[in-house]
Specification:
This protein is of the alpha/beta class. Among the domains are: 101-239, Rossmann fold, CATH 3.40.50.300; 595-792 and 826-860, no CATH class. Helices cover 40% and strands 6% of the residues. The chain contains 28 helices and twelve strands. It has a five-stranded parallel sheet with strand order 6-8-9-5-10, sandwiched between helices. A three-stranded antiparallel sheet has the order 1-2-3. A hairpin with a 2-residue loop joins strand 1 (37-41) and strand 2. The longest helix is centred in the C-terminal third of the chain and has 28 residues, at 561-588.
């Protein structure tokens, strides 16, 4: 083997080192692939993507999963072992009998055999779990689907129903929606045992009604809400043990007969604890520890090195030696020392005294449990957390002392132990320990070898570490929150793939809060996206829309294209589902009466009504033009008039003023169309009236409104102007030759000339009415006062112009052609000068003079 090149020369790899040094031959290490899982939730296909965010879409045809099938007895037994707590390594705890519970046991078994439901109510530590185990064993072959054990600790009724479905039916990769879940649960017939139930009232009624063929055996504390009066549940109260039973239980826990002093001490403890079995299990542990301290084998290591390395000696062997010594057997290897009995206070709250006599690994495990709020990590994690390869045996020590109680597939501190340990300073450096646990779980949950089922079994410990790190203070708060974000990113996809969606939601919300406090925008956007996808699966579309829009906004700021695309796809699905739901709701709703636009009161609140399209007509010798003035609205905005109300005849007679949707301007779709048509007709009529008035003659002053041939078109009155006269015979008409006049629209004054020719004052282009609308408030043209009759008028010189390509203001141009000499034709008169309307758009009028009647192309 070459010391420089670690490759094997025997198999021809002796050149790998040289190739690696030269940068060739050895590929770069590839990162671990993200675990992508596809699930079916109802009619939706969910792809759990831990990188960019989960994707959700309607399940494509042909990819529907197989129908769930009932589990076989072997599969049910395997599922029961998976949800049971593991047997802790280390010294085994003594077997304890079930005392003074035979009556309750028989009564509960009879209720379940009749297909009814029962609820056991007892204080924490009263032995509810032991009683449920005994009753479940009695009902093993009672139901066709067997006995299903569930844990109600931190579980909602919906989560319990999903766990029941998973325990009885084999449906990998499926999580039915609400309707599908209820349909499948109706066929399940099992004895469902739920320990540590936390719901009651209507929630409990929902749980019982979802599985009508199941018999439920529930256990809860006295603080849990009671079932409703209509719930078919019989309650069984669980009281404490009697004095004789308590002393018998204590002797079973110690493994020997009690002395008179110990019996008196146990009597005082029974009176103080009201006969709770847990207190006597812990008291038995105290007496076993006392026996070990009193008995010291001569051959044991004097310096305690073995105990320091491997923990305390076997308590069973020590108890056997102590029992032999107490029975008067003379053993030279046994040395008895005087150790006083614990005080009554220490017997009532023995957690601190018990912990002080445990091994160092067990004490460290207790401190980690305190940092997690009572949750105990799995025994497989203790060696890495504690730093001792034999730390997994600490779980057996804690269990034998009565400091732990089983909760589903794991353990947690027994009732009252956390409070007692906190009172003795076990919370010291709890934040740092929670940070250590979170770092370990973040690495472990993201490891490819960890299955989603194993991650969901540790859900409570993971969530406890998350919640412990978020409200951090001090210099390490930012680091703790960043670790919480990493843990949430690693655990949330595993919870989703493991179908534990209650834990998935809690992990996402905790991670989103930690990312917000830590200022990690990308991670916050990821959690918002996942919460939106989860809301879609739950059918809460409004919540899904809000979460997805927040995610898209944050990812847009970060220019995260892939994440933005995933969010928009999910948001499009929300829009599609919302449309379907809205259509279904509309189909279910009864037909409503016609609705119209509400009548708004006051000109300030009046909505802007759409203007009808203007009526167009061909101009003489030109294309279709649009009016130069804005069309008259259907409802002019007069200051002293409101919108016209179209109501029924009977309503108008009775004076019924309806408001809101019932009292509107119009009602019904057809009436809206009628109103629009009436508005268009009104515009046409008004335009016709204005046009006729503009083209009609003015006979009041026929002579004063004419321009003779002696008048010129020069505004300054010069003699170099042109005379206005009609074209001679044989001359081409300007309209026919393509020359446009500047009098296409009627005069704003409403007066017109009797002669076919029209003249306009050149000063009109500079008048105020030539820029903008003549009337900005009412939409109607404003009349212009004609000049006095005694004032001489002029005509403008002709200009050869073409119609502009777009509406513009036309100004007179200087003459470009030589004017024709005057002829002997009698002079004609022209109408008085008027002010031209603004040329913002070309006007189409009704009743305008034809092309043959136009006398000249002069803009006069």
């Amino acid at each position: 083997m070459d010391p420089i090149n670690p490759g094997s020369e025997e198999y021809g790899h002796d050149t790998e080192g040289e190739e690696a040094r030269q940068g060739r031959g050895v590929p770069a290490p590839t990162p671990a692939r993200a675990r992508v899982v596809r699930l079916v939730s109802g009619e939706l296909l969910l792809t759990v993507n831990p990188v960019d965010g989960s994707e959700i879409e309607p399940c494509p045809p042909g990819q529907e999963p197989e129908a769930p099938r009932p589990r076989t007895p072997e599969e049910r037994a395997e599922a029961a072992r998976a949800v049971a707590p593991p047997v802790p390594p280390g010294p085994a705890a003594p077997e304890l009998p079930l005392l003074e519970r035979q009556e309750e046991r028989e009564r509960l078994t009879g209720i379940l055999r009749q297909g009814r439901c029962a609820r056991v109510v007892g204080a924490p530590g009263s032995g509810r779990t032991a009683l449920l185990d005994a009753v479940a064993a009695d009902c093993a072959g009672l139901a066709p689907d067997g006995v299903v054990r569930l844990s109600g600790h931190h579980r909602t009724p919906t989560e319990l129903l999903h766990e029941l479905f998973t325990a009885v039916r084999y449906a990998p990769g499926q999580r039915p929606d609400r309707a599908g879940l209820l349909a499948r649960l109706r066929d399940i017939g099992a004895v469902v045992v739920v320990d540590d139930l936390e719901c009651g009232g209507a929630a409990l009624d929902e749980l019982l009604a979802a599985a009508p063929e199941c018999a439920f055996l529930l256990a809860s504390g006295p603080d849990t809400p009671a079932p409703s009066a209509e719930a078919p549940v019989e309650e069984v109260l669980l009281a404490g043990l009697g004095r004789a039973a308590a002393l018998e239980l204590l002797e079973s826990a110690v493994g020997r007969t009690l002395t008179e002093e110990e019996a008196n001490w146990a009597g005082d403890l029974w009176f103080e604890s009201e006969g709770l079995p847990l207190r006597f299990v812990q008291a038995g542990a105290l007496l076993r520890q006392r026996d070990r301290l009193r008995v010291t084998p001569a051959e044991f290591d004097a310096f305690g090195a073995l105990e320091e390395a491997f923990g305390p000696t076997d308590p069973t062997a020590a108890a056997t030696v102590a029992a032999a010594a107490f029975d008067g057997i003379d053993d030279p290897d046994v040395e008895l020392r005087e150790i006083p009995l614990p005080s009554l206070g220490e017997g009532a709250a023995p957690a601190a005294l018990l912990a002080s006599r445990l091994s160092r690994s067990a004490q460290t495990a207790l401190r980690f449990a305190v940092a997690l709020g009572g949750e105990v990590p799995h025994q497989a994690h203790l060696p890495a957390l504690v730093g001792d390869t034999h730390a997994d045996a600490a779980l057996g020590e804690l269990m034998a002392c009565g400091l732990l109680s089983p909760v589903g597939p794991r353990y947690r501190l027994a009732t009252g132990v956390l409070t007692q340990l906190l009172a003795h300073g076990y919370e010291h450096e709890a934040a740092d320990r929670a940070h250590t646990i979170a770092q370990h779980y973040a690495w472990w949950a993201s490891h490819p070898s960890v299955t989603p089922e194993r991650a969901t079994a540790e859900a409570d410990a993971l969530l406890a570490a998350l919640t412990a790190l978020i409200p951090g203070t001090g210099e390490s708060a930012a680091e703790h929150r960043s670790t919480a974000v990493l843990l949430a990113r690693a655990a949330a996809p595993a919870f989703a793939a493991g179908l534990h969606w209650g834990a998935w939601e809690r992990a996402l919300r905790a991670g989103q809060e930690a990312a917000r406090l830590a200022g990690e925008v990308a991670e916050e956007a990821y959690f918002h996206h996942e919460l939106g996808v989860l809301a879609i699966c739950a059918g809460n579309l409004e919540r899904a829309r809000a979460e997805l829009e927040a995610s898209i906004g944050l990812r847009g700021v970060l220019a995260d294209k892939r994440g933005t695309v995933a969010g928009r796809r999910a948001l499009a699905l929300v829009a599609d589902l919302s449309g379907e739901h809205a259509a279904a709701l509309r189909a279910e709703e009864p037909l409503s009466p016609p609705r119209g636009t509400p009548a708004l009161r006051g000109p300030a609140a009046r909505p802007a009504l759409p203007r009808p399209e203007p009526v167009t007509a061909p101009l003489p010798g030109g294309p279709v033009r649009t009016p130069a003035t804005p069309p008259v609205p259907a409802f002019p905005d007069f200051a002293d008039a409101g919108p016209t109300l179209v109501t029924h005849t009977d309503t108008a007679k009775n004076g019924d003023r309806r408001s809101g949707l019932k009292g509107g301007i119009l009602s019904g779709a057809r009436r809206n169309l009628v109103a629009v048509g009436a508005g268009a007709l009104l515009v046409a009529v008004l335009g016709t009236v204005v046009t006729l008035g503009a083209t009609s003659g003015n006979g009041d002053n026929p002579a004063g409104d004419r321009v003779t041939s002696d008048s010129t078109a020069n505004e300054s009155g010069g003699s170099d102007g042109l005379d206005a006269e009609e074209p001679a015979d044989g001359e081409a008409d300007p309209a026919e030759t393509g020359q446009a006049t500047h009098s296409d629209s009627p005069s704003p004054s409403g007066s017109g000339s009797a002669s076919p020719s029209a003249s306009t004052d050149p000063s009109a282009s500079g008048s105020p009415s030539s820029s903008g609308s003549p009337s900005a408030t009412t939409g109607a043209p404003t009349a212009t006062t004609a000049p006095p009759t005694g004032r001489p008028t002029t005509t403008a010189p002709p200009a050869t112009t073409t119609p502009p390509p777009r509406p513009t203001t036309t100004t007179p141009k200087p003459p470009t052609t030589t004017p024709a000499p005057p002829t002997t034709t009698p002079p004609t008169t022209t109408p008085p000068p008027t002010t031209a309307p603004p040329a913002t758009s070309e006007t189409t009028t009704l009743g305008a003079p034809s092309a043959s009647e136009t006398a000249t192309d002069s803009p006069a």
